[in-house]
Amino acid sequence: MSIIVRIITALFFFSASFTQADTITGLTEKAQQQDPQSQYLLAQSYDLGVDVEANADNAFYWYSQAAENGHIKAQLKLANFLASGIGTEKNPQAAIRWYSQLASRGNPTAPLELAKIYEHYPSSTLSPLDLAEVWYQVATYYDDKAQDGYSRILEAKFNARREKQISEIEQLNSAFSEEESSDELIDPNRAPTSAPLLVTSDYLSISALLILLCGLAITVTKVRAKRSHKENEQNRALEAQIKSKNFTIKQQKRQLEAMFREVKKYQASKDVQKLKIACALFGYSANSIPPPKSIKIRYKQLSKIYHPDLHGSDDEMKRLNASLKTILQNVTKK
């Protein structure tokens, strides 16, 4: 009897191994033929170690292939791999590009991930904290957890502004002290006052004094010219940086405005769909809603049907109340 059990067990494991091998082989063949779904499933197998040994490099490769072929879930996984450095080197810029494409199509996960990247993005002309603030704000439409990140960014921006103000005050104090000390210039060619005078003639004394004053004037002029030249160079460099930052900010604003328009369209379509469902429950059309008085009469009639005490249920009554609220809000807006 034990021999029979062993034979059956061996046959079971052999058939299971054959099926797994056949599954991976079939997925690989379809994936090589540029089938996005097969590429995504094959990437998942390597990612999770299902029917094959886990391999992050292979998972990244097949996720990237499926993403390039338009597979939405693969695009999200590819962005995660790029942001975390799984199966490849960390590439936050590439991750931002994929997350931005997904967010523009209404993906609910992408805005929060974008905000997280920008929150820890190194300082640059992109103003990462400002972008993180925007994406956390967008993410709050989809995920309540984004509110914590939004509050954290506001606090970080406040601290940064305070540190900047303190630094500017310290720089002003330092510059004021330097100007006071620069007023007292010492001529290195002037002889010590304790040395005996070698020239007794008044004419020579006046001449020496004039030469000393001319040298001092030339020195002061050179110092001022050098300082003025340095300040002009700094101002030109600062103006160039400001122009570059303004250009980048304008580009980002255009992208964000386009993103907000997409978000508003998405919200509007959700509201229209919600109104249609509510009107259908009341037996109305979304384009021809009667006055509030008629709506409340119909609500009382339907309450007799859906109320839990009158052969209805709690869920049906909640749905009826929510539909009433939606319809009345729409009537009020009009």
UniProtKB/TrEMBL annotation:
Keyword Iron: no
InterPro entries linked to this entry: ISR_Activator, J_dom_sf, Sel1-like, TPR-like_helical_dom_sf
The keyword ATP-binding belongs to this UniProt entry's keyword annotation: no
Signal sequence, start to end: 1-21
Residue ranges the record marks as coiled coil: 235-269
Top-level taxon in the UniProt lineage: Bacteria
Keywords for this protein: Chaperone, Coiled coil, Membrane, Signal, Transmembrane, Transmembrane helix
Annotated Pfam families: Sel1
Transmembrane segments: 203-221
PANTHER family listed in its UniProt record: DAP3-BINDING CELL DEATH ENHANCER 1
Name of the featured protein: J domain-containing protein
